[in-house]
Amino acid sequence: MPSDLVSAPYSGNHTLFLSGPPGSGKTTLAVRRLRYLLEEGVPAEQILILVPQRTLAAPYYDALHSVDFPAGGAVDIATTGGLARRTLDLFWPLVAGKVGFAHPDRPPRFLTLETAQYYMDRIVESYVAGGAFDGVTISRARLVSQVIDNLNKAAAVGFGPDEIATRLKDAWSGEAAMLRIYDQVQSVALAFRRACLAGNLLDWSLQIEAFQRHLLPLPPLRRYLLSGYRHLIVDNAEEDIPATHDLLKTWLPLCESALVIHDTDGGYRVFLGADPEGALALSALCSEHVMLGESHVTAPEVAALGIELAAAVAKKMSPPQTDPRPAQVHPPEPLRFHPQMLDWVAGEVSRLVDEEKVPQGEIAILAPFLSDALRFLLTTRLKEYGISVRTHRPSRELREEPAARCLLTLAKLAHPGWRRSPPTADVAHALMLAIADLDPVRAHLLTDIVYRVRDGEPSLSPFHQIVPSTQERISYLLGGRYDELWHWLREYAGGGESPEGAEDGGDLDHFLSRLFGELLSQPGFGFHRDLDAGRTAYNLIESVQKFRHSFSPLSLGEEGLGVRGVTPTGELPEVRGDIPSGKTPEPAEMPRPIPGDGWEAEKDLNLEYLDMVERGVVAAQYVSSWRVGSQDAVLLVPAYTFLMMNRPVTIQFWLDVGSGAWYERIYQPLTHPYVLRRGWDGDRTWTDEDEVGVRNEALARLLLGLTRRCRRRVYLAYSELNERGYEQQGPLLQALQGMLRRRGSVERSEP
Fold this sequence. Notes:
There is one protein chain. With 751 residues, this protein is of the alpha/beta class. The chain has 4 domains: 2-89 and 218-291, P-loop containing nucleotide triphosphate hydrolases (Rossmann fold); 92-209 and 557-602, no CATH class; 301-395 and 627-743, 3-Layer(aba) Sandwich (Rossmann fold), CATH 3.40.50; 398-549. It is 46% helix and 9% strand. The chain has 29 helices and 15 strands. It has a 6-stranded parallel beta sheet with strand order 3-2-6-7-1-8. Strand 6 (231-234), helix 12 and strand 7 (257-263) form a beta-alpha-beta unit.
């Protein structure tokens, strides 16, 4: 059967819906199908591979890496957002006026998540100053990101941004004060939309909305897109948004061939707008439906463990027909304290690597949430055993990444004219990370001596000026490395000896690139063999570049246009088209998002970027952070992040199985991933029963997804007391205890 799927007809609208559990070979078949199409002479430019997230396209990029395409031909791989951006850029003159952009004769400026937060924060600032959101106990950065999330969900589902408050309020059953907050959320969202239209700025939500409402109906677009791509491969459809499924409903009847891949029990990105039910409905539009049932990855006992745990949690799945004994599911001895659990995990990882010869890259340590403290404690323990570790925590604030803080602190020291003097603690932390083997005690001692601020300008002094007794305490080896760093920063601040240094020194991304390449990545410095630090440096440089490129004369104040999209008279511009305009009423007590002082073109973008990071901007998605490749390092990530990496490992460790965090949703008071989904009944409120139901379902999906991506063994790590000293009895632990009692695996109640 699989070989027949690969060589299925590729003409006459042959569409296939392929479903099955992870590890059953669906993507492998899709890659073979892609190669078959190319070998049969199908033009590469007629093939489109559609994925919900760029990182999920890695198998296709790997397959195409060695393919020689004729001049002008290549297979396109895209997300719906990427497709929308590409076509909007191409057909901009046809739709700009219809959408309602104030300057349709000028090019669009596409925003990343980070730059969208930058503009949104400018709007939120005036609302907060006027007393808005006074009852919400979250940081301003999270407030900004949740308003953006509302706009994104509205665009993904297909309703207007002026319906956000109505949907949230209709489902709310708590205190009445929250209804006013929802009005403020919508007011900010609409103000942001007007600013984007006035400044030719397109965030993700506006790209999707303009693409769906204005671009798709155009005949030129249909000829270019729907007729140009004759062969579709759609992977992980269950993780995609309703807008993608709507597009496929139009596209599938028109293409020559299509392969739609669906993971059963998937839909881990529901909180980001995924619609697994909508993906499953696509099967009715396909001429053939094939189900793959056997996993080529998961051991039978691990699969049985996942099914039984999921059934215990969701209480609606059937237990496995066979009853194989699961792999090791408890520590060898009772563990009471959290540090003991971490010691046991590190020791067992070392034993697996040394005695069982498990490659480090085949071990994943998973937690419901990965805090800085947990990452530091576990990474330190593993490194003591000589185990390399790589971590990935998406949707974190840039300033929370230690390597990013180090680089930006050194940037402030290299640019004293910015008058951004970092705190002494930040300088000590930067030196500790930048100089290999410099411990915190000597880093603080060195900083107290060499770091000074004069007239608002920071400066460092050389190591040789320190008294000899203190030099010996720091050590001459570390002092020599510090002097190398000091000389590099000093030469850069003075323009450098090469013309390149003086020429590109004004841009922060150029500085960071040179600092990493010329110094910090070299032997003797902290980024030399640190995979996470190198990846963070790469992402930070890309972030600065995109921030700088997102500005144009238009958005920097040409003709008096402010960053929030206001006219020189201080009035919001009229907006054309069917996207909500400035005529939408706002709460009477809310100030309009008009800046007190105008945005000036000579504003230093480097300083604006630093301010943005310090306000807590959430990092955008960078493909490099998701790539694992052949790196021989233990993977330490949140459980949901591991699922979206979509790669199996030999061994999994689940940390803190007693924690309720495996079951709880992230606190998001200004948005709601389920109420804003397609199919939600707007005539009723969200109840505790609804909350418990979706939590149980999400946990069951999570457990199935993790076990289906494990080849051999799952270790469940548990301590009676959590890191704060409290007893923990979360739903996952309770389900596990019930399962072990039924199996009679252990005599004691705890694992």
